[in-house]
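name: query_chain
kind: protein
chains: 1
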Amino acid sequence: MSDPIEDTIYEKLAALGPGKSIEPADVAKAVQPEQWQRMLPRVRTTALGLMRQGRLMITKKGKPVDPSSFKGVIRLRLPTAEESAQLIEARTATPDDAD
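structure:
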């Protein structure tokens, strides 16, 4: 089953081309035009999940944000191959408890 928020994120990014970004509000307005403000937290949550999977980048002022502590105005874009690998590596890395 597909998620309409996720689908809309990828549709909008595909229409723009490589390296371009979108605002979460653009996605919310496309999914629920009448009450898009209510949709923003769900869009951000979905984007965060996609970022943790290495499938999306969340940026602020053009730079990737820390997925555990970001707030304010953000943008969404597709990751480069290198960024995607780094996100996946960071997600699968476990702290060394042997000490």
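note: The mean pLDDT is 87.
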